Amino acid sequence: MRLISLTLLALRRLANQRALTACLLLGMTVAVAIASAIPAFVSSAQNRVLRRELADRAAGQIRLSGLAANTRLPLSLKFSYLGFGRSLLNFDETRDLDAYMAEQIAPRLGLPVVRTVRYMSTDLWTVLPANETWRRYPVDDSQPLGYASLDFMTDLLDHIDLDAGRLPAGFPGAPPVTDDGDIEVMVGRGFSAKTGIQAGDAISLTRTETTIVPSDLKTSREIQRVNNIIARVTGVWAPKNRNDTYWIIRPDVLEKDLTLSPETMGRRIGPLVERQFSLMIWAYEVNDKLLTAENVGDIVDRANALNAEAFEKNEQLSLNQFEIISALRSFLRQSQELTLLMALFCAPIFAVVLSFVVLVAGMVVRQQEGELAILRSRGASPLDIFYMYAAQGVLLALIAVLIGVPFSFGVASLLASAITFLQFAPQPEWVTTLPPLSLRLAVAAAVLGAAATLLPALGAARRTILGFGAERARSAGRPLWQRAWLDVLLLIPCAYATWQLRQAGSLVVFGTDVSQADPFRDPIRYLLPILTLTAAGLLASRFVPRLFGLLAALISRIQPLTPIFLALRDLARSPKDYAGALLLLIFTLGIAAYGASLARTLDQHLIDTIYLDNGGDLRLIETGISNKPERPLGVPGQAPVDETEPEYMFFEPPEGHLEIAGIKRYARAGRIPVRARTAANRGSMDKSMLLAIDREEFSRIAAKGMRDDYSYAPMGQIVNHLSTRPDAVLVERRFFAVNGLSIGGKLVLASGDFRAPGLITYTIADLFDIFPIVAGSDAPFDQGNFFVANATYTFESLGKELPYDVVAETDPGASVEKIVQDAQELGFIVINAYDARSRLLAEQQRPERQGLFGALTAGFLFMTALTVLGFAIYALLSFRRRAIELGVLRALGLSEAQTSIYVVGIQGALTLVGALVGTSLGVALSYIYVPAMQATGKLITLVPPFLTRMAWDNVALIYLALATALGFVIAASLGFLRRLRAFEAIKLGAV
Amino acid sequence: MTIAVETRAIERAYGTVRALRGVTLSVPEGLWLGVKGRSGSGKTTLLNCIGGIDRPTSGTVACFGRDIVRMTDLELTRWRRSEVGFVFQAFALMPTLSAYENVELPMRIAGTRSRRGRAMECLDLVGLTKWADHRPPEMSGGQQQRVAIARALSNRPKLLLADEPTGELDTTTSRDILALLRQIVTAEGITLLMSSHDPLALSYCDSIVEMRDGEIVSGLPIRPRATDS
User: Fold this and answer.
1) If we measure between CA atoms, which residue out of B161, B153, B185 comes closest to residue B61?
2) Which of helix, strand or coil describes residue A367?
């Protein structure tokens, strides 16, 4: 009864405090929606990776198998037995294996099997014409027509047409299999065309069987038995559709064998030879629509287990690794990387959501403290208060889940449409399913929200009305975490881990061995930036009140600034009142600035990498026409080639590139293998590369690929030094140091191109560390050396031109295919073309990259939204709480304008300081941790190194959002202030 | 005899509720006038209208010859800064400020240059010099009310308005506070208007008017007192 009355009281309180309840519900709903949306979003991204991986593999298979490009390859798990020598099977063993596969393997594949295709074949038989067929083959009878296996494949009849004859005995509609007489087979159209065998012909099949028999303990002997059978070709078949995915063995391969019915195989062929079955395949086509990112791990594990089990059963039996499992394993590796990234980048979002819920809950409880104290004084026990809040929390959590979970579909869809940071695809990809984790996290977020309302309530529930007054007396004191020095305690391990990180140089987040990069094994290491931000934010907030106090002291004597002084002094004296809002601001700005900068750095790094590798917008790999063209060997009628004559290449004048529509400017960039001759190495160095360029144009075209940190001075300046003299050469700084060279000194390079051997003497003009094309992302950066010189001087020194690449600056919308076509029409021989923009687009559309940017975008948007919301709620409640103070100040003579300045001063100073501290920490984090995020891996290359880029424009967006929220809050506050009646406020009660 | 406060037929209505119904009152300078009446009788509304933190719906309020009803909001604010001191039932001290800072606050708002001496003087007057650095929540109710009185006196007002100043205090503390007010009225020549329904508090007044349903039902002076021991 008591519980019912308390529950009713709790509900009445919720109903009576509609505004506060709505705020809390909003916070919890957003928390639930985010918690639920993130896994859905991750799952969607993972599924995209999965589908892409499967499609890539299928495309590869389709290319290999010669299937039509638009063939849809289903998900198929293929086991095979491949025997030879002693491991050839007899027929009974094949039946055992069949039974084993059907009973032990197929039911445990993890996905429903929609089709099973089984194939078996014997070892090769020598095919000779039989006597009656002989007449048509007036050739040496010792020459076989070919070699063929005897085979059959399940459901074959559904996929072939008979070109001629009839089906062999044992097939539906054909005569029954007899124990004597000719063995009936059919041949494929290919075999028939190759051998001339037709339906009705008889062929002789011969196979020598070697059996090793131990004669005593020490010796063994071989027994050879020649098997000979006469087979009758009853028909010639051809595949109905060569692109049908039924063909687990390419039909053109199968056509070369002799196909017979399973019954014939068992009754006639099986008993004939002891061991002859060499290949068995069981292909299980499963329902790939049921394959999801969630169950792929289980399926791969199960496939691995079945593979191991099959191996146990027979060492020759295995799951075909080159098939789909390989693709799934590849997905799992990528998925792990994606999950790791998501865990890394979503952790701060959850932290901010948590902060938000705690902040709002704390504000709600704070609003109710007086009421709780009265309830306690009127006889309610702490347990009653706890129960009341628990009832409120459960109800709110329930509503939050009901609203938040459907809302999360939209949120996840929006995130899944992220192209890059804060940019979405015009047609968003809708997420239509929520993984189980979404619901679990949604419930967890709701429970967390409810718990967050309980914790502050417990503290308040302990106090009676007198205790409440005493607590207010202490409210000016520092928060618990400050009194316990938790901020400093947290900062110590963070500082130590950061020091370790800087020693190690990288987080190995994007490492090749992702399995080692488990965030749950070493969470501090992976969450280090966030933990550091937390510690630094807490520490900074310790000093914020002092800053306000200092500012207040500075302006205390300036009479016109009295309202500001009062605001600053109030902030300096009541840190506990705004600690939550301040921390939320600091964390959000810090994480947002860090996240946005990481995203910007990654984005720019991709551009840097591609342009470093490509040299410019477009790189055409061209060659010239040789005076010694390649000719087929031994073709009669060809003029003899003079081997002593040196090879010359003839090139179209490169200026012709400017005639091609879309090319704005071009430069030659010849890559010439060279060996450097220095006193130290005496020409023994290898793998070096000289890039011979048209300096002036190249430096303009490759501007995007040349960062100023690629050398000790700006790259433009470095490249310009090539103009000081024709024989100028730029040398890699490492090579320069190792060999004790000097600027202005000579460097002799020996051409390694067989067409133009010779020595070229250069003068060292300047140094670089990284240079476009030669030291791109794919270059063996740790091996060999790179030099850059003037193309004209280099080719003149060699006495001839060698093939060169043409780097070009192109119009943004120019078609590469069209440019190549035009170039070829103008006589240029274009071997390949690398388009930086296409590569950039392809990279940007990689799902894992989208996932990463989606997470960063999600974090940025949610944190901004929540912080703005949280701050607005805080500011409005704070204003409401200050109404009595404002009334008193008005009564004491503060004018309406001054009171407005006081209100604006409090909110403005808090926002400004919080934002500035957060941004400063974010900037510091970016410079400390972003470079450490680089390591080898698929997604990110080591060269060039990360160059931290601050995304000030995105940070400005948060400032704008905050300013808007602040404006709204101030407008609302001023509106309230205009209606404020000082006497009413004062009458409300104690300040 | 100078008239400190003179109201003529002031009315104050909040919607359909008429809190004051044509109150006419004349208070000589230096008088401690008690306004008694039950809750809701209009005592506080009358003091608010006289103190300029509320405006009557009709009628005039003249304080030391100035009609405050016709003042703009800014003029009224400036007038309050220099002429009026308030003492509220719930003390209404700023919790984040020390006793000294609370007392100094009206002077800071008014732009008074040398504030420290006057603030300490006021604190000394209420006997709280040693508590100057303590914040209100660390003080007893009586001490807080003393700080409130010191704050009300800090800008040397001619008129002191006290709304149920002993409403939240025990009898002993109330006596101390009332004695203090008596001393201030006598020593500083301040006019004090005090609302209360506490007979003890009213016993300290020079004159008392009784209000009922927004009207003065018994005139003044009832029991003039020049001094109090």
Assistant:
1) B161
2) helix
